[in-house]
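Give me the fold.
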Amino acid sequence: MNSVFIYWDNSNIFIGAQAEAEEREGPSARYRVRVNFRNMMKLASAERPVEKAIAAGSVPPELRRLWNRLESEGVNVELVDRGAVDRGEQQGPDRILQLQMLRDFADYNGDTGVAVVLTGDGQGFYDGAGFHADLERMHRRGWRVEVISWAKSCNQRMRRWVEENGVFIPLDDHYEAVTFLTPSSADYPTADPRESAALDLSSRSRASS
């Protein structure tokens, strides 16, 4: 099967985008940078059919409306309200995505596809848990694997493994296309907005069978 399964850890990707924006465009950019959901989705799918896409994040309730843009791209969104007292660790965004990975691993056994994970989080590997461990499980059963992450914030052990066994796509190479800057605020009256550039997929590698 050539379809892709996308697992999007938005909190990890957004925090990395903030650091990258500050380094490239100055201190105010950290607070004004936003992710271009449509271009990020296009980068993940890379013109291949999408069997399933799920994104998870931790956001204040007032920002839920922003996720409507991602849902309009056909992505199943799972949100955890930051600071909610009735949410346990098991309901964290990472666990939501990892559970879905294992379900797909079981449900599609024998009819594998391409697992595209948007995160740099490689924690839990030595305990047999986390994104890296689950990617290795999927790969052993014939899944092709891709990781999309900011180079500086990606777990280096996970990056080395996926470079040897799949494809690593550094978001740094697509920074101008997958981010934009909002207009200035009262704190930064001279900061100009920036629109996203067009996304160029010509150099985007794809995991082969």
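Residues 11 and 57 are 5 Å apart (CA to CA).
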